[in-house]
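INTERNAL TRANSFER SHEET
From: sequence group
To: structure group
Subject: TIR domain-containing protein

Please process the attached sequence and return the structure record in the designated field. Keep the field labels unchanged so the import script can parse them.
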Amino acid sequence: MQVFISYRRSDSASAAGRLADGLSEKLGAESVFFDTRDLTAGMQWRDELVQRVRAADVVLTVIGPRWADAATERDRDRQRGSADQDVVRLEVEQALRYAPIVIPVLVDGATMPSRQTLARPLQPITALQAESLRSESWHQDVEALVANLATAQPPPTPPSPAAPPATNGASADPSVRRAAQYLASGSLVIVLGSRSNHADGNGGAPVDDDELARRIAEELGVDVGDRGLAWVSQQFALTDGRLELVQQVTRMIDADARPTSVHQALAHLAHVLGERGGGGLMILNANYDRALERAFDAVREPYDLAVFDGQHGGRFVHVPWWSEGEPERRRIDVPNEYVNLPVDEHGRLEHTVIVKLHGGATDPCPPEDRDNYVITEDDHIGYLSRGPMESLVPLQILRKMRESHFLFLGYPVGDWAMRVLLQRLWGEQRLQMKSWAVDPDLSAGEPELWGQLGIAVVAKPLPAYAQALQLAVSQAVP
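Return from structure group:
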């Protein structure tokens, strides 16, 4: 068993050193990594730390009384340019993503920090069962910790979606191989449509736009027919008011709905890319719920959010994975000058960026941002009429979109409201980069609409296609 000890020197250096000595005595020094003892002169120490964390069977995160405060202070110092990267953040984030077992160890009378006091990368640690080492019973507590290490089991995690059956044909589709190559090279953007929400065909999944329209129509006492979500939302807002519409929609979308196999496959795709140095995904999400984010949270895969807010001047809000002392939510007032997303000048992503095109549920979500839905006819018309795209979409996202191939998953292009963004991007032009729309349930006229855009239709089930793509990316990324 290999044990890695993570700690903050300003918080718990003495207790961590004492723990390292105790574990080395019980398990052998070769089984315990402790930085001041095992890092030697000339090492690329950041790379070494990452490798040691990923190779560990157990990571012990030593938490003293100032662990959370020290993280906040470190962020502020780094923001002022007076501190280097937070090494403990690096260790803990890597541990949560890759280590089989992570155990918080509370020392010097510390208690577990509350989730709200920690940055997003560190928040999952608050849900883990902790061990306490008390000064008055130190040796007994270390003995108990060693005994627990011998029987500790990794927490259950959502399984990676299985490879699709050979009979469904998705894995043999030539678009899978090409899309995987484009993903591996960082030149493909994924667009997630509302039909992906019912891809598995079972209960517990988030509602799609058709179901949301039906429920709103029931509340209103009308027949929505084929007029769609934008129309019925407009009628509801006119009769019952915008605030009531927002409250109803917020209840209906169920922010905690279970992710589908498509969401899970995308999260695992991002994990494979990140693990092998390929960055992450750019996902344009046309849904209002948090199912995609929950799939990423389940496998502890980092992502930034860019959420459109149509009710405050038509601006995106950036929710960074790591805020480094800045606000957790940053309104992007000058989109063509904003360059704080994790995308470099060549379009390479540090990790995944999820762009919520039509607003929707987020975490955190302050009261002033709860009505951020682009849902009524007026909302979509406003989306269409707000000046050039450069004044609407952040520069890094827009550049990535204009220089990439596209993969649309369950995107209902037959709905005029769903075509608004495509019209803003390309106008009447055909897309120049090879792109695909995957959907086995196209409605009348949709094949022709995709054809007008220059996008090839792949009539395959979404779960099978997403899982085949996951397998192909695993093979394409070295």
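Handover comment: Residues 9-27 form the longest helix (19 residues). The first strand starts at residue 3 and ends at 6.
Transfer complete.
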